[in-house]
Design brief:
Shape: elongated
Number of strands: 0
Largest sheet: none
Strand content: under 5%
Structural class: mainly alpha
Order of helices and strands: HHHH
Oligomer: single chain
Helix content: over 70%
Length: 79
């Protein structure tokens, strides 16, 4: 199986320490990461043609992923 693109360590290679710290110290961060991983996995499944979906569904998922990414970015920069 191939690696799912857009994983957080890949998106924030310069902030791995902050990611680890937030993962251990913030339940809110863990929830946002869990949601991000779920949406990112769905996007991957659709783009890899493992699961069928309309273009509208895919675009909505990508928008959700961006919103979650913005939340994660804000949390990283707040510490």
């Amino acid at each position: 199986m191939t690696q799912i693109p857009h994983q957080l360590a890949e998106e924030f290679p310069d902030h791995l320490e902050e990611l680890r710290r937030l993962e251990t110290e913030s339940s809110q961060f863990k929830e946002v990461v869990k949601a991000y991983d779920a949406v990112n996995g769905e996007v991957y499944q659709i783009e890899a043609e493992i699961e069928p979906a309309s273009d509208v569904v895919l675009e909505d998922l990508k928008k959700k992923r961006l919103v979650l990414m913005d939340q994660i970015t804000a949390m990283i920069h707040s510490i």
